[in-house]
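G., before I forget:
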Amino acid sequence: MFLTVPDSLINQLLGTAAQTEGKLYGYRYDDGDVVQIRGILEASGAYLGRWYRSPVPPTTELAPEEIVLNIDDELPDQVAGWQSKATGWETISCNVIRLHTDYASRMHGIFEVSSLANTCIAVIGLGSGGSVVASQLARCGVGQMRLVDFDRLKVHNIARHACGLHDIGRYKTRALRDLLYDISPAITVETYELNVLGHEDQLATIVTGCDLVVVATDHEDSKLAVNTVCWPRGIPAIYAAAYNRAFGGDIFRAIPSEGACYACFQTVIADFFGPPPAATQDFSLGYEDPARMEELLAQPGLGVDVGMIALLMARMALLTLLRDKQNTLPDLPTNWLLFGNRAEWIFQQPLESLFIDVPKNAQCPVCNYSAFVAESLKMSEQEAAAEASDILADLPVIQLSILPNQT
Ligand SMILES: [Zn+2]
């Protein structure tokens, strides 16, 4: 038997000096081969046995298969385990799990995982891309996550999604939240079942305080809405798209004040290679209009292909979060990364990466508003505001009243 107990529980038990014994709850797996002690409350799982604050073996008679832990104040990391057998007490090696100190041990020397403990990100769109990005960033130690999606998990999602079959029917937000809590010992997750289109005020509230926003909706209008909200607030955002049948995809990063925003990106992208593959829009159709999901389903893409784009997005997100922190990972050279799973369109060979720096649009209505107003209206920002104010002042005031036959 492999018996585990988290060090946080041992510390909790030793922290209550007045209490010397109690019940233990948790889970048995693989016909009892693994027993995980999770806590001292019924909500922590099934009843497993008892704990005693004593360095000596138990004297109490318990039912067969019950577990006993002897916790010694002098040796808190050497917990003695016992199991009740017909022949008497049998000792069990007890593995104390150091969740917080050991969790990131395989990432030491690359970056300090604890440096992301106070980092907050929002992930908008929790499909095959967003769910993978969120789960990867949770593994990197991101401490706070805000998940935004209004859709539920369906059978056809699962082959390309981080969540599983037992989550079918659940909101993607809540299913992914549970997965993230199962992945990271120190994460806090908030969920919002919200369509960001038409709800920019709520979106602004959600992203306020975030260090980064990950936009994985594959819907141009929602990406532009996020850009309009994030850029003026100085919040970096990363946008990804998967092309038709996921033959490739791209990731664009907008860091306010440094360069191009997503609106710039949209206007200049056509200058590079002509219009992006038309089928890119197929993903948008399904996201915006669930009735067209059948059409979306007609555009298959391998989970491994979509996953490549998602992992690159996670990589760019991590590098962005680490920009002001000590790390050994060099940042990407440009704000736009294109990746081809197959040799199609502009990609000469499979698994090809292209790096392109997207310049700022000199008359961008989002990140260069003054120039935009000057170019399109031939007046200054102040003159435009004054004229708008005059127009509003001349509008008749509409009186609203309750209809008389409504009580
Ligand atoms: Zn712009």
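The CA atoms of residues 213 and 339 lie 21 Å apart. The two ends are 70 Å apart (CA to CA).

More on Monday.
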